[in-house]
Amino acid sequence: MVVGEEGQVRKYGEVMRAEGRRLTDMVEQILEFSGIESGDRRLTAVPVEIAPLLRDAIERAAVLAEPAGVDVELTVQDDLPPVLGDGPALMRVLQNLLGNALKYGAGGKWVGVDAHRHGKDVVITVSDRGIGIDPAEHERIFEPFYRTPAVVDAQLQGAGLGLSLVQRIVRAHDGRVTVRSSPGEGAAFSVFLPAATPERARRAVRARAEAPRYS
Fold first, then answer.
1. Which one of 11, 50, 99, 111 is most buried, counting C-beta atoms within 10 A?
2. How far apart are CA 77 and CA 75, in angstroms?
3. Domain range holding 171?
4. Is position 196 within any domain?
5. Each residue of 78-130: pLDDT tens digit?
6. Integer distance in angstroms from the first to the last C-alpha of the chain?
7. What is the CATH number of the domain that holds 77?
């Protein structure tokens, strides 16, 4: 079938681009998951400023948020300390959480991103007003390839690797991930990352200097 109308051509083009992004993201998720599981993907440890990382992640997510009419609201505490971590890996964490919020919470037309200090941690929370998650599923959603019955029933596409990858990356940073959610009441995922103290930064520099080098 040959499509001649400009509107149809544009529509099919958007569908193809969206499908291409989905497949590319799925491949990247699988490769990164495999790398972390095998130990081939080694995380660096440098001071990472969270505010610019959040703004960058939200800007990248605009291709999903804008067509869906979702307002992404960012709140960052003043003088937020950096965390000690791997910038690209933390970006993957933020992209996965934002992607999930936009996919499963698009009906609520709002996603909130909050970053603040809590004790010795920097806490990043991504919230939505979407379909929510049954408390009985809270532990299982971090299992590789697991998809909740509600997601399957809604016929929402995905590999089921995003949250598992988030948890593994955060744990590799000596952090943790929590979830607050109930069916029909949206979801809030919080990532707790240790703030980068001067002593932790010095230890990371020494570790990099002492690490074996390969030619």
1. 111
2. 7
3. 43-210
4. yes
5. 999 999 999 999 999 999 999 999 988 888 999 999 999 999 999 999 999 99
6. 55
7. 3.30.565.10
Separation between Cα atoms, residue 169 and residue 171, nearest integer Å: 5
Answer whether 142's CB lies under 8 Å from 162's CB.
no
Query: Whose CA is closest to 147, among 135, 130, 129, 162?
Result: 162
Residue that the structure tokens 């991103």 belong to:
113
Tokens standing for 193?
């990352």
Q: What is the pLDDT of residues 53-79, one digit of tens each?
A: 999 999 999 988 999 999 999 999 999
**Can you spell out the DSSP letters for 88-121?**
HHHHHHHHHHHHHHHHHSGGGTEEEEEEEEETTE
Amino acid at 63: V
For residues 49 and 56, is the Cβ–Cβ distance under 8 A?
Answer: no
